[in-house]
Design brief:
homodimer, 350 residues, alpha/beta, Isopropylmalate Dehydrogenase, ten-stranded mixed sheet, two-stranded antiparallel ribbon, 13 helices, 43% helix, globular, binds 3-isopropylmalic acid
Chain lengths: 350, 350
């Protein structure tokens, strides 16, 4: 197969981890006789610094023309604490999601036997937990109208959803549930929000087309609690943009490190693959960042093009590296390997 | 002291738990020679059933005239799954918060040595965790304009905040930090939301008046993760309404049971005290609900009127009950006591 992959390393640890997954993808192309072409482009703070634009035209163009986007991370502290900054790195990521129409962000969460004891949660609570979060990614309060009063003394963000936006991701989530344990949990705040009530109503209607899937509902506050109390109860979680952002970061503690969590963002035409962790500025350049989330995102990229054997080879390599303790310091305190060394090891296993 | 206390038991387990805290408050009045008058009123589904109004005029009147409100819980499943219901129990609670101007919801989270092993989190992560969450309670997406399109195919909720709304709760939170470990963490999503940027800007300005308090910032997704990874890092958390709802439920797992978490909601004139847990309909009438959250809310009521010795007597009673395992089944599986028995025991200790 021939694939053109746009590589957007972004900020902070983005470049160093993305480099490892590119290495791994190259090894996959080699072994399985594919032709993967990698085209780099700027995004985020890196792009602001050079071009004053977190998503330069050339980058968007490239992404639109490519078969897939491999994304690193975005964000820089110099913007976080400056509420007056007019241009922020995150705008690049949000615009990219919107322009590419990546409405579904898919975040699998699982545990690794070897890491159970590293989780802040007790082993018996998490062993066997295996869920996937379907987070709506191009709607809600992220993209609704924002405003600040002239005098700067008040501000607002609008959260809005249409039936259509809910429907398209709901179908994906129900289909995923059919391939899994056939349970779908809609997380919302229907006792307070009008948009949540629209979610509940729409999803209930769609559920009729998936009679083999059990549907239940949780308020987001309760879900945040259940995620820790009993993560094994979840199979597929479906939720809106902001709640999905919060819950998936929270869910990362189950696996033992956010450095392990990959995601795929898909739309009707394009697809992007990125770790769920951020740019982790304090770690930049130190060789301590965990490349596994990025490498597993690359595996999701392979899945997306139905290269299942290839994706499994990558996942097997990751599993072996964890089993053998060839890991960065977030999950291997005593005898850790550098970002690059872990990448080399994974590459070698393909 | 003479206090008029409006008692709003509400729905589900609300009445049975509130009964226990009224008992305990009566014991306090007895022992410390106060005069507490308790006036019951309807709210929530209970009020809808009888009067088709989740917050009848008479109830609001009573609350306004009272010195404090003791609130049970609210919510009934028959409304949750009916997105078309025009009247919902939660409207009663939200309207009450708004009408009484209860802008600050204060939720302390701590651990009990005896319960450390019951938490889903590992002992060493949580032992000694001790934080208080200041959640803004009368603004944000809870109270912004809501709308549904005529054709029912789209909906929206507006999140808005003014500098004034942020300022008044920020001062309370900074003052609390000064009395504690002098650290305040603002949780927001300033990399995406305009309202969050207003929060950050406003809180930074106010911080200058509290030079002895260390201020830091966390994005809400990261906060949801840090809450589990390292809850001991938090002293005072300040956040907006929706984020506070999610984070405080999540934080409940640290203490081992949501049935232990109390809250005070304060405004300039009125104050209300309620457990953070919900109406827990499945447990209603079974005598299994934990009355401690309600009893500790009563302790916060006493604190509010500067009845510190009295409040401490209630907290000591709770601590002893936990130490001696006189607990409901959520924290004492094998040899548990009923809601009423726990209440009797606490009453007896005053
Ligand atoms: C960087 C930020 C805008 C982004 C988000 O909130 O969506 C990130 O947290 C994520 O989850 O991908
Ligand atoms: C019942 C509901 C409206 C309420 C809220 O979301 O504020 C509850 O969850 C709480 O935290 O007090």
């Amino acid at each position: 197969m021939k694939l053109i992959i746009a590589v957007l390393p972004g900020d902070g640890i983005g470049p160093e981890i993305t480099q490892q997954s590119v290495k791994v993808l190259k090894a996959v192309a080699d072994r399985f006789d594919h032709e993967f072409q990698f085209d780099d482009a700027l995004v985020g703070a890196a792009a602001i610094d050079l071009l004053e634009n977190p998503l330069p035209e050339a980058t968007l163009d490239l992404c639109q023309k490519s078969d897939a986007v491999l994304f690193g991370a975005i964000g820089h502290p110099k913007y976080d604490n400056n509420p007056d900054a007019k241009v922020r790195p995150e705008q690049g990521l949000l615009k990219l999601r919107k322009e590419l129409g990546l409405f579904a962000n898919i975040r699998p969460v699982r545990t690794y036997e070897k890491l159970l004891d590293q989780s802040p949660l007790k082993r018996e609570r998490i062993a066997g937990a295996d869920m996937v979060i379907y987070r709506e990614l191009t709607g809600g309060i992220y993209f609704g109208e924002k405003s600040t009063a002239e005098d700067g003394k008040s501000a607002s963000d609008l959260c809005s959803y249409s039936e259509e936006e809910i429907t398209r991701i709901a179908h994906l989530a129900f289909k995923a549930a059919q391939q899994r344990r056939k349970k779908l949990t809609l997380v919302d705040k229907a006792n307070v929000l009008e948009t949540s009530r629209l979610w509940r109503k729409t999803v209930k209607t769609i559920a009729q087309e998936y009679a083999d899937v059990e549907l239940d509902f949780l308020f987001v506050d309760n879900a945040a609690m259940q995620m820790i109390l009993n993560p094994k109860q979840f199979d597929v979680i479906l939720t809106e943009n902001m709640f999905g952002d919060i819950l998936s970061d929270e869910a990362s503690v189950i696996g033992g490190s956010i450095g392990l969590l990959a995601s795929a963002s898909v739309g009707t035409k394009n697809a992007m693959f990125e770790p769920i962790h951020g740019s982790y500025p304090q770690a930049t350049g130190k060789g301590i960042a965990n490349p596994v989330a990025s490498v597993l995102s690359a595996a999701m990229l392979l899945d997306h093009f139905n290269l299942i054997e290839e994706a499994n080879a990558v996942r097997k390599a990751v599993e072996l590296s964890i089993k053998l303790n060839v890991c960065t310091e977030d999950i291997n305190k005593d005898n850790h390997y550098s970002t690059e060394k872990v990448g080399d090891f994974l590459e070698g296993l393909i």
